[in-house]
Amino acid sequence: MTQHLAAPAAPDSGTRTDWWRDAVIYQVYPRSFADGNGDGMGDLEGIRARLPHLRDLGVDAVWLSPFYASPQADAGYDVADYRAIDPMFGTLHDADAVIRDAHALGLRIIVDLVPNHSSDRHDWFQRALKEGPGSPLRDRYHFRAGKGADGELPPNDWESIFGGPAWTRTTDPDGAPGEWYLHLFAPEQPDFNWEHPAVRDEFRSILRFWLDMGVDGFRVDVAHGLVKAEGLPDIGHHDQLKLLGNDTMPFFDQDGVHEIYRSWRHVLAEYAENEIGPEGPSLEGRGRETGGRVLVAEAWTPTVERTAHYVRPDEMHQAFNFQYLGTHWDAAELREVIDSSLAAMRPVDAPATWVLSNHDVTRHATRFANPPGLGTQLRTAGDRALGLRRARAATLLMLALPGSAYLYQGEELGLPDVTDLPDEVRQDPSFHRAQGQDGFRDGCRVPIPWTVEGPSYGFGTGGSWLPQPAGWGELSVEAQTGDPTSTLELYRKALQTRRTQPGLGAGDALQWTEAPEGVLAFRREDFACTANTTGEPVRLTAPGRLLLASGPVDVGDGDVELPADTTAWWAV
Ligand code: NOJ
After folding, report:
1. Atom of ligand 1 nearest to the CA of 185
2. What is the pLDDT of residue 436?
3. What's the gap in Å between 282 CA and the centre of ligand 1?
4. Looking at the whole model, is its pTM more than 0.90?
């Protein structure tokens, strides 16, 4: 395949070990990004061929969701071999080529690490099952005898995040009902026992394996879950999903997780900076503590203050801001979360992060198309024009905030969720386990359109593993390129402006300025942002020269009418 390795869009981002403080990081969901071999499933070859799109978009780094050897019970978040690529995605050679090409284009690569659980096909787990009770390999997971006269009841009352009990009973090698094992997610995802030194050693070794491969960091899956409260105590409450994110659970956000991340930070510190872009690493970066390699926590905690614990100076570098993702398109709510996020990160000197979409939630163009309060997994398309208008405005607001931002593939095209997928094509394990009550994550995972025509709109030549809706081609990269009103060009312009305009990017503060109700207005150095979250136009004094807006804006003589659901950027 022909590669176009031109100079990176931002040569400066290639020479800073603290690049992550203001990085825009683009999430690639490998099975749905681009299919290089025409089997209907995205792969590494497809990703490699499309890297120039990401360079042109203007992002700094790419986070790849799991591509490891896996039976795919949870779309790759069930890893059977942490050092191998699943054949559906390619080979280690392909991974190496992606990393090298990305670096040559000035893009960093962050890979997903899944340390809370393995696949039930992982060698340790398989051997633990085969060897039966008393096997030392069982200590690397949580095996327990059941309660009740014949051990027929689960060892405690914990419920799986995907619905049903968090325990599954095993069958002994002689065919008799045996011990139970813990799985906070699907039964195919047994939880590791992080009290066991072999588990700790193994993951430090896995980190080194991928650092040796040249990756720039890790997004750490379920970073809040590794350590469980001693004795695995009952919660005493059913319907535990409702407690998640609000209460401290005996399996989440336990203080013991932090020493694990402190030890990982030491591992990262052994590595020098990668060569990024044509100029390679800065001299100043060499030998410095982190060498530009980073750890990013997927940590769902009750408060932003608890999230900040994960990014103390000797732990991880960033943590996802799920409080922000869950905030409605409402000025007062947004302001509160923005303020509390910045305040929480300041004492630990970590950048705030911002995110609106990922592979686990309904895309923001669809969330904002629906009435607030429905949660983050929806089945209703809502008012698509309204959703897109708000999504564009929300993105521009997000990219104006101090810190680092995460984009999810396809949001640059303004893609909505596919809310009408027939149940029989859905593959999300949580959909099937919860009997359709929850788990609508397939809707945001539909392969993205690259071209107007073609069997799978340029995703590949052999169809797509989830059906793409009719009309998907009108939203494609090809259709939107060069159209100044398109969402793709808005993202490109925004990311380009972010690199050049003082006041955008790194930092930990902003100054709110006076604004009518429902409008957010703030300044940072020579930059100002105004976001109208109301459904009506508002008249404002123009803070400066208009740089960019998420919709058509008329600047008059010193004042401006900001349309409903519109964000504008200003040079002051
Ligand atoms: C979080 C991941 O983002 C999600 O997709 C996965 O199902 C769970 N962790 C379990 O690994």
Report:
1. 10
2. 58
3. 35
4. yes
